[in-house]
Batch of 3 targets.
Target 1
Amino acid sequence: MNSILWLKAFHVIFMVAWFAGIFYLPRIFVNHAESNEPLVHQQLKGMERRLLFFVTPFAIFTVLLGIAIIYQYGYPWFVAAKWLHIKITLVVLLLIYHGYCFKLVKTFAADKNTRSGKFYRFFNEIPVIILFVVIILAYVKPF
């Protein structure tokens, strides 16, 4: 059981680091979309790219550690843990969101963004909602 606790601890550590980046990146998109200054755009392009590539390993480790935890608990537990199936679905959606951020970084890098800062403010709320639901599922286990 001690190994599961270590897996869970590192799973949460990497998840927190991933979310810190995935919360901040859309805020950079907001600033980029609302600025008309070429020098600011150049600086933000670098920040966007570096941040996305910096947090991607955290996403990978979060997922790998989650898989390791499931493996440690075993198949019967996995089948019975209905809350976990919803959590995994939300993590897949978050991974799609993360992947879409790569597209957005490329769009900004090519100076082809057509969306407003308001769009990116709403876009920024998606991982917040996912995080709230995932934490409730993981700790309350309502199903």
Target 2
Amino acid sequence: MFERVTSNLGPPLVDESLAAKLLPGVLSLIAGSTDVISFLGLGGLFTAHITGNLVILAAHVVAGGEAPLALMISVPIFIVVLALTRFLAAGLEWMCVASLRPLLLLQFLLLAGFLALCVGAGSRLDSNAARGIVAGMLGVSAMAVQNALVQISLKGAPSTAVMTTNVTRFVMDLGEVLLGHSPGDVTNASRRARRSELAIVGFVVGCGLGAGCLALAGLWSLALPTGLGLVALVMAAAAKLDGAHGHLLIPGLAAETRPERSDSHRASASETASNAGRA
């Protein structure tokens, strides 16, 4: 059997490098572009602002219209994928594998599947047909993975898909910077404000780019968030954004290394006791 040896496995701090600082902005671009493309191209389906689907669904019910199946199942699918992503991250942690890059890879694959199904349908995609529903759920799943990975794998990062929270946090922190009295609180608020600002700007720019690309290229515009998903993965890999991580040792190797540490500790303890006796 293999023995698991840990060494402070943890997510990278979002401020620890330039790549870590920029990654939430790239993820916000992905979320904004995916959300607007799916909303305009798939009959009003939100993939990132998932609770918006509840509002639209309620409007359909009140108006007496037929509720689209994609809207009805989007929230349960989102919740299930969040839970599965958490289980996957826990499994990776158990194996001492940092979760950031695997989850970014999973998001990219889901976005690529979303793109493939949409463009494979040709110029017209019926959002209420099986193909359109499955495609939409792949987009929802990709955004669920992104929402989870930001909390699990990027320490200190703001939400990259929920801008109401970010705008609220940004305004509150801006008020603290302008009106606060404690230097420590002002410094922390300024740091959080910069993080939130990047996410807000990224999402807004992503929405604009997504809408413009959809007008020009139809559902081929999903190549934009898919390409950005690949960029995020390459950034994390190139900058080695995987935190401290452990490794797997075979029992023989573990047996070779651990006794040395134990003997060293015993020798140190014996030397300390001897010195104390002479004193």
Target 3
Amino acid sequence: MIEQPSPNFNERKGPPDMVVLHYTGMTSGPEAIARLCDPEAKVSAHYAVEEDGSIYRLVAEERRAWHAGVGFWKDETDINGASIGIEIVNPGHEFGYRDFPQTQIDAVIGLLDGIRERWDIPDWRILGHSDVAPARKADPGERFPWQVLAEHGHGLWVTPDMPPEGAMGPPLGMGETGLGVFSLQSALGKLGYNILAGGPYDVETATIVTAFQRHWLPEQIGTDLEGRADAKLRVTLMALLRHMTLLDV
């Protein structure tokens, strides 16, 4: 652990019960860490994880770092106040998005091991920046290995059985209305996204569906299914909700 204190924090109102994962989205790790420690930038995170697995501690976990901005998850609107923020060095979609090295992911897993020994953070509150702010953010993105994290005990992941082909009809998409759209919007809201059921399949719905795909169905990003809700997405969403029910969420 490398100590690299950032001045960009304030006091929490309570203990953290959430982790938000980001990519840095800059051309290099040193550049990103310098910005996270720049008082003029007014941004920070609790940790930054370099591609070689080096971990920088920027803000004490007991303090409120400024990493998430305006966001929402399951009625929580002060994401910074509720969460521990981890910035993972990667140039992101703007500067040559690439796979996260295994050494880096191993470091993130070890970091989460320690964080969750110190704080009560449930699996369903280990999230990406794009989950809590889908209209603004795409990180850590579709290349981030959420399934690997879940296999090491961190976060939700399901692999549901699929119904027979055609049993659930064609994908839902822009402009559609009806019970299927209502049910989709309702389920996304129950999972935690900031969406109310009712109205057509609009830009907001498509944006949140894309955020869901980045986290739980990354293979759909960049295809004609991006932003559309096919049978696999709807079955995966319902399986996640059933799993949360088993966890008494």
